Amino acid sequence: MANAVRLPLEVFYEREARHPHTRYMVQPLGGGRLEELSWSDVGEQARRAANWLRARELPAGSRIAIISKNCAHWIIADLAIWMAGHVSVPLYPNLSADSARQVLEHSESAIAFVGKLDDWPAMAPGVPAGVPTVALPLHPQGQFDFQWSDLQACTPIRDNPTGNAEQLATIIYTSGTTGTPKGVMHNFGNFGFAGSNGLEMFQTQENDRLISYLPLCHVAERMFVELGSLYGGQAVFFAESLDTFLEDLKRARPTMMFGVPRIWTKFQMGVYAKMPAARLDFLLKLPLLGRLVGRKVLAGLGLDAVRMALCGAAPVPEALLRWYQRMGLDVLEVYGMTENCGYSHLCRPGKNKTGWIGQPSLGVEVRISEEGEVLVHSGATMQGYYKDPEKTAETLTADGYLHTGDKGEQDAEGYLRLTGRIKEIFKTSKGKYVAPAPIENRLAVYPHIEQVCVVGDGLPQPMALCVLSQAGRQEAAGSSRGELENSLRSLLDEVNKALDKHERLLTLVLVKETWAVENGFLTPTLKIKRAVVESAYGAHFQHWLDRRETVLWHE
C-alpha cells in the first residue's frame, strides 16, 4: 500500500523550520577547504535566488537549465527554480556544445545556471544566443551574464510556495544510449510519490550521511541524494573530483551508498590492485580473520559505516554482489528508469534471492507482456516525453503502464528477473537470438576483466570484446602474459559450458582502449554504448572469427 504523498518543497520547509541550524550540505572548495551549509542557509539562499528569478517576469513554468557537476548549489538552484514556479532542466556536465545546444533549444530554456565544469570553453558555444547565464559560486573561468552574488543581493521571498502535484517540476533528458536524448517530464506528484514511499522503504534517519558523486542530472542520483535528503533529512557530502574521491569518501563515511555496477567493480579492482584476488579469497575463508580482513578492506574504501548499499542502472553480476557479501556488506539491487523516477523494484534487506532483483517497490504494479517485456505502473510514472506525443504513446500503454524495454519474468512472490534488453537482443546469421547481458555478467566477475561487450548480430557465432582491469594489464605487460591467456581460455570454457549452443562465444578479444565517457564509449552514467563499440571494431569482426583463436589481442 503506497503512502500519502507529500511534495518536495513541502518537506523541505518542514525540515528547515524544525532544525534550521542542523548541517545539511558539506561542499569541498579545493585546497582542503570545506563549506558547511545548514538547512536555513540552503533555504535563505534558495529564497533569494527565487526572488531574482521572479523579477525576470518569465511566464509560469518556464524552463531553467542547470549545467554543473554535483555541488551544493546544484540543489539550491533546483529549489530556487521550483520556488519561483519554474521547471528545472539539468544537463550532463560533459556534453559537447552540439548536444548541449540540442537540449537547451528543445527545452526552450530561458536561463542557464552554470557551475562546476571541467571544460566550459568547449561547451559554452552550445548556449544559444539570448539565453542569460548565471555563474554558481563554484564555476569555471569565462564570461557570465550574472553572478550568484547578484541573486543573493535580493531579499528572500516571504511565501512558501509548494507547487501542486500536477505541476511540472523537471524535464530530465535521457543519456541517449540509443540516439537522440528524450525529455522525460516529471511533475511534483511523481517526485512526491517516489520520495514519500522511498522514505518508508529505506527507513532513513536524520543522522544518516550520503555522498553525492554520480551526476545529479541522472535520475538515480536525483532520487537518492536530492529527494532522499529532502524526505529523509540526511547530510549530503559532495565529492570534489575523481582524484580526491577516496578522500571524499573517507571524510563522509556514508551510511547509505548508491553506485552503478561500474563503481562497485572499480572499488573491487582497486582492492585487487593492492592484493591479488587469490590471496584475498584465501584470507576471507579463514574463520574470524576473514571477518577482520573484510572490515579492513571496507574501511580502506571509506565504506565501513555503510548500513545500506544499493546498486542499479545496469545489470549487476551476481558474483560481484557475493564478493561484497563476503566483505560483510550487503549490496542490494534496485531497478528503475528515468521514466519512472528510478522507482520500480528493490531488494529488501534479508530478502535476497540469488539471480532475482527483488520485489516491486511500494505502490508499483507489474505485468509481463506476451512478448516477455516488463511493464510497470505507479504514481512515479512520467507524464510523457516533452514535445513528443508519438514517442509517449509508444512508451505508455492506454492504461498508463510503462514499457521498460526489458525482457523479464516474475515469480509467485513478485521477485523480478531480467533476461535482457529487447533492443539489445541480436540474431546470429544462423537465425538464433542471443541476449548479451547475462553472458557479459558471467565474464565480468573475472578479476582481470573490467569491461565487456558481447557482439554477434549477423555473425555465425557471438564473441566478447574485453577491456582488461589494471591487474590484467599488469600481467599482460609482464612475463605472466601466457598465464593470463590460459586463465582466460579456462574462463571462456567455463562460461560456454553454462550457455546454450547458439550462445557460446567463439573468442575473447582483448582490446587496447579503455572505454570511457571521454572517448564516447560510455554514457555519462557509465553504460557501454553498444552501437559505438560495434562501429569502432565492426570491420574486424569477421577476420577475428575466421582466426578461430579462443583468446586474441587487438593491438
TrEMBL record:
Does the entry feature the keyword Nucleotide-binding, yes or no? yes
Tell me the keywords, alphabetical order. ATP-binding, Nucleotide-binding
- Domain of life of the native organism: Bacteria
**What are the recorded GO MF terms, alphabetically?**
ATP binding; long-chain fatty acid-CoA ligase activity
- Record InterPro entries: AMP-binding_CS, AMP-dep_synth/lig_dom, ANL_N_sf
Q: Where does the AMP-dependent synthetase/ligase domain start and stop, copy by copy?
A: 14-386
Q: Does the keyword tRNA processing apply?
A: no
Q: PANTHER family of this UniProt entry? A: AMP-BINDING DOMAIN-CONTAINING PROTEIN-RELATED (PTHR43272:SF33), LONG-CHAIN-FATTY-ACID--COA LIGASE (PTHR43272)
Q: What is this protein called?
A: AMP-binding protein
